[in-house]
Amino acid sequence: MSRDVSEQWPDATRAVVVGDDVDADDVDRGRGLATDGGRPAPDPADLRRTESPSLVKVTDQGTVYVAATKVRDNGWLWLKYWDGGRAILPPHRVLAVHRVETEQHGEMDSQGHRDRRVADEDWRERAREMQNEAETTEAAKAVVADD
């Protein structure tokens, strides 16, 4: 999924609206802080092996661009935002998950691995903008279940 995905998903946003019945204290908002075992927020130009950038289409919300997704044992979708914040969605709110293409680059390390990054420069820039936006505004919301 490269440039054609960008054209197909021009309205991809940073987050999904928090439900009214959710206490804001229950939401993990990284805001670019080290929220993953002391590691900094995801970097679209230097992805960890566990990060799988995705576009998540959410019921009554639209599309959300995230750094990583994982389906939990109970069927809920775990998300990690580009600013390091995390949240989960119940299965009935997730319409689709589309992976954003990544590529390997640079030299191999001692274990034979190369660095990974989001393949399309436009998508890398979008992720950086989302990180900056989250750092500069309190209006950014995290995805949480509304049930």
Description:
The chain has 147 residues and is α+β, with helices and mostly antiparallel strands. It has one domain (3-136): Roll (SH3 type barrels), CATH 2.30.30.100. 15% of the residues lie in helices and 24% in strands. The protein has helices spanning 3-8, 121-136; strands spanning 54-58, 62-66, 68-71, 77-80, 86-89, 94-99, 102-105, 115-118. The longest helix is centred in the C-terminal third of the chain and has 16 residues, at 121-136.
Q: List low-confidence stretches.
A: 1-6, 17-36, 137-142
Largest sheet: 3 strands, antiparallel
SSE pattern, N- to C-terminal: HEEEEEEEEH
Shape: globular
Terminal CA distance reads 32 Å
In short:
The chain has helices at 3-8, 121-136; strands at residues 54-58, 62-66, 68-71, 77-80, 86-89, 94-99, 102-105, 115-118. The chain is of the alpha+beta class and 147 residues long.
SSE inventory with pairings:
Layout: H1 3-8, E1 54-58, E2 62-66, E3 68-71, E4 77-80, E5 86-89, E6 94-99, E7 102-105, E8 115-118, H2 121-136
Antiparallel strand pairs: 1-2, 1-6, 3-4, 4-5, 7-8
List the keywords.
three-stranded antiparallel β-sheet; 15% helix; SH3 type barrels; 147 residues; alpha+beta; disordered N terminus
